[in-house]
């Protein structure tokens, strides 16, 4: 409703910008949001504390703040007395709509938003109570929501009075220490729906700048208060911030905004405020909104590699990069960064091999540019283990696989087949490396002790090679595994430092052993006498090769009874034992195997859930989406054979659909970008219709003879996809 007044508002706001800039110059840039701290990449430190999405290493709590941040709180000035209630306001709105006289409503809005004190006077639950703790913001959320919901339905002069009042408030509050009333006002103003309109972006930008420039202690309050906002309002604020960033990057009408050179601080300010909401979202379990709701797909269209290199090169400088705030970068964009980073590493390693060969006056060989793995199908695991152990120096080269005795040339298809067969064999229960839990339908590391953990290192290397070579694997690890894999995300220089150890909870155990986790949960909620009724100690038992072995959860644990008082400690130690301590050597080997291939600072950008998607793809098959994105060669999508094909495929069971996907692409998983990323093609085969369909998995291509009817096509297709192991050349 503000489009008509956009030009007038912008001209009015030019004075506001001038005033703000003059005041800013007087204060200096000590709190400028462009002074952003990014990690010291060379030392592999963690991301900024506001970027809790990556590994949630820190929790925002006043208890964790240094003493200097717990400064004395400035005294709250006395608030004007305002007695209007929700019902009073709603009555005024109804009368105004009926009579057309908006004077009472106009007076309310212009007075309420005229200053931060007035905002508090109107929306503070109790003006006599300080509300200076992180637990309760003291904001009457219902009243705020009613006032904002009505605002966009009021006349233009009412809406303009609100914006003018906000300008006054921002000018008044530009200097001096912040009171909790100031923070409350910021929290309320962020929810203003007027900031969805581009004509208000100049004011919105200065509001964001002030919030971004607050002290860390003030940010902690805003984070904890924000997590109490309703899901609907929370999501609206996040979407508003994302839209602000997108339209500043790619404005539909550039003339609406000041030149980019004069407002380079807009995007850093908005991103830092968005980080506060991401931190608030991370504090709640389950989160208020999905982590994917923070993705900004507009960033997929900027030069992400320049962002990544700036982030790497400038260390702890003051240069802004979106990579400082990876929660805003989509998984598709992160995949692009990782792929290009991998390609650059591959090219660098291959070039070095070539230079070394030439410097020794030896004849260059094209095979030296690849990681060549030659295996026998009958000795798949042992041959693969030997090849990867022998060629450690080549792990970062492009992978090429040869099956001994087969004529297939690896253009990508043989590599997919090798991964598939190797994973299937290693994870077979008879192999004993991993235990399959039927209740959770996932694998977990066997705790059996052995002398050599090299095969666990092989599995880690396989996962690393899969990410490095953009292959999706059918591996069913629980989310906890990927959290451990990023603990830490960069291999520490100190080899005595523990790796693969992360904070685990009962929720993590539920994802692997739900029955045991339920039993422990029952223990925590048991209302009787735990010591007398359970008769347990801080000692657990495990069966290893038919022998029962006991382990103390703490020193002299077998002599310490579990009681009502210490049962929480018992459960936490038990969970830590199962998911960390009992499998430490196995997982450490797995960790080092993965990072021996996939060592990249790009891993700092990833959440555990995103690593899982990169490794495994998505198990959700959408054949209709595949149909829409399929390309044809020799066929038209309206041809009878093609219509028969899709009628058959869309009617297949999930198992047969997975077999078809595996037959045509070498994997039954969907890549990060969805079915469209497969670049699936159906080509016309001029062979006899007595022949079965043929697939070129290197190119995700299916060669389909022009079968005469649907029944014949279905029969031949099922035979082909059900007998799809091995490669040959005509």
Automatic annotation (TrEMBL):
Entry EC no(s): 2.3.2.26
Active site: 698
Chain coiled-coil ranges: none
Domain of life: Eukaryota
GO BP, sorted A to Z: protein polyubiquitination
Gene Ontology molecular function: ligase activity; ubiquitin protein ligase activity
Involved pathway(s): Protein modification; protein ubiquitination
Gene3D superfamilies for this protein: Hect, E3 ligase catalytic domain (3.30.2410.10), Hect, E3 ligase catalytic domains (3.90.1750.10)
Domain HECT: 391-730
InterPro entries: E3A/B/C-like, HECT_dom, Hect_E3_ubiquitin_ligase
Catalytic activity of the protein: S-ubiquitinyl-[E2 ubiquitin-conjugating enzyme]-L-cysteine + [acceptor protein]-L-lysine = [E2 ubiquitin-conjugating enzyme]-L-cysteine + N(6)-ubiquitinyl-[acceptor protein]-L-lysine
Top-level class of the enzyme under EC nomenclature: transferase
Keyword list, A-Z: Ligase, Phosphoprotein, Transferase, Ubl conjugation pathway
Purpose: E3 ubiquitin-protein ligase which accepts ubiquitin from an E2 ubiquitin-conjugating enzyme in the form of a thioester and then directly transfers the ubiquitin to targeted substrates.
Protein name: Probable E3 ubiquitin-protein ligase HECTD2
The organism of origin for this protein: Rhodinocichla rosea
């Amino acid at each position: 409703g503000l489009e008509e007044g956009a030009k007038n508002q912008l001209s009015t706001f030019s004075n506001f910008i001038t005033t703000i800039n003059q005041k800013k110059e007087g204060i200096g840039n000590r709190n400028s949001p462009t002074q952003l701290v990014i990690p010291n990449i060379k030392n592999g430190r963690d991301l900024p504390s506001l970027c809790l999405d990556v590994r949630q290493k820190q929790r925002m709590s006043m208890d964790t703040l240094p003493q200097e941040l717990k400064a004395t709180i400035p005294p709250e000035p006395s608030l004007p007395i305002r007695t209007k209630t929700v019902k009073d306001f709603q009555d005024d709105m109804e009368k105004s709509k009926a009579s057309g006289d908006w004077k009472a409503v106009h007076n309310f809005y212009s007075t309420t938003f005229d200053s931060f004190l007035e905002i508090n006077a109107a929306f503070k639950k109790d003006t006599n109570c300080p509300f200076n703790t992180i637990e309760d913001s003291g904001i009457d959320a219902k009243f705020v929501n009613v006032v904002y919901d009505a605002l966009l339905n009021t006349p233009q002069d009412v809406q303009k009075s609100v914006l003018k009042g906000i300008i006054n408030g921002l000018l008044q509050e530009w200097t001096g220490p912040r009171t909790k009333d100031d923070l409350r006002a910021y929290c309320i103003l962020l929810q203003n729906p007027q900031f969805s309109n581009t004509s208000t972006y100049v004011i919105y930008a200065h509001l964001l700048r002030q919030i971004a420039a607050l002290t860390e202690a003030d940010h902690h309050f805003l984070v904890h208060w924000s997590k109490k906002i309703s899901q609907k309002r929370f999501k609206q604020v996040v979407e508003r911030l994302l839209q602000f960033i997108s339209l500043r990057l790619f404005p539909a009408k550039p003339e609406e905004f000041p030149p980019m050179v004069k407002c380079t601080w807009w995007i850093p300010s908005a991103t830092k405020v968005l980080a506060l909401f991401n931190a608030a979202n991370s504090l709640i379990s389950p989160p208020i909104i999905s982590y994917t709701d923070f993705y900004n797909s507009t960033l997929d269209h900027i030069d992400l590699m320049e962002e990544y290199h700036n982030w790497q090169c400038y260390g702890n400088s003051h240069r802004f990069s979106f990579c400082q705030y990876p929660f805003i970068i989509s998984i598709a964009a992160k995949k692009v960064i990782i792929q290009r980073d991998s390609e650059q590493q591959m090219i660098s390693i291959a070039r070095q091999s070539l230079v070394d060969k030439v410097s020794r006056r030896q004849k260059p060989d094209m095979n030296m540019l690849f990681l060549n793995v030659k295996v026998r199908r009958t000795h798949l695991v042992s041959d693969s283990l030997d090849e990867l152990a022998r060629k450690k120096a080549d792990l970062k080269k492009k992978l090429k696989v040869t099956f001994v005795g087969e004529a297939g040339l690896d253009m990508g298809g043989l590599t997919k087949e090798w991964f598939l067969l190797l994973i299937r064999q290693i994870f077979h229960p008879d192999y004993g490396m991993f235990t399959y839990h039927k209740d959770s339908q996932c694998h977990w590391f066997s705790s059996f002790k052995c002398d050599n953990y090299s095969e666990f290192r092989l599995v880690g290397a396989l996962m690393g090679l899969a990410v490095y070579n953009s292959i999706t694997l059918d591996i069913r690890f629980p989310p906890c595994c990927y959290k451990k894999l990023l603990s830490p995300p960069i291999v520490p220089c100190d080899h005595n430092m523990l790796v693969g150890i992360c904070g685990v909870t009962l929720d993590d155990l539920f994802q692997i052993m739900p029955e045991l986790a339920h039993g422990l949960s029952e223990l925590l909620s048991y209302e009787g006498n735990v010591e007398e009724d359970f008769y347990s100690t801080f000692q657990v038992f495990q069966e290893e090769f038919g022998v029962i072995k006991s382990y103390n959860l703490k020193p002299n644990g077998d002599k310490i009874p579990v009681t009502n008082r210490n049962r929480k400690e018992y459960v936490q130690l038990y969970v830590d034992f199962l998911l960390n301590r009992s499998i430490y050597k196995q997982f450490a080997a797995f960790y080092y195997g993965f990072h021996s291939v996939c060592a990249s600072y790009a891993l700092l950008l990833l959440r555990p859930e995103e690593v899982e998607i990169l490794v495994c793809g998505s198990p959700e098959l959408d054949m209709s989406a595949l149909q829409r994105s399929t390309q044809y060669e020799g066929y038209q999508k309206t041809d009878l054979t093609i219509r028969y094909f899709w009628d058959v495929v869309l009617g297949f069971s999930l198992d047969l659909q997975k077999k078809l996907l595996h037959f045509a692409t070498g994997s039954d998983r969907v890549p990060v970008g969805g079915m469209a990323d497969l670049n699936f093609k159906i080509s016309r085969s001029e062979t006899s219709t007595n022949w079965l369909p043929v697939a070129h998995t290197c190119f995700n291509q299916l060669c389909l003879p022009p079968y005469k009817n649907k029944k014949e096509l279905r029969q031949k297709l099922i035979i082909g996809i059900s007998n799809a192991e091995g490669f040959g050349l005509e």
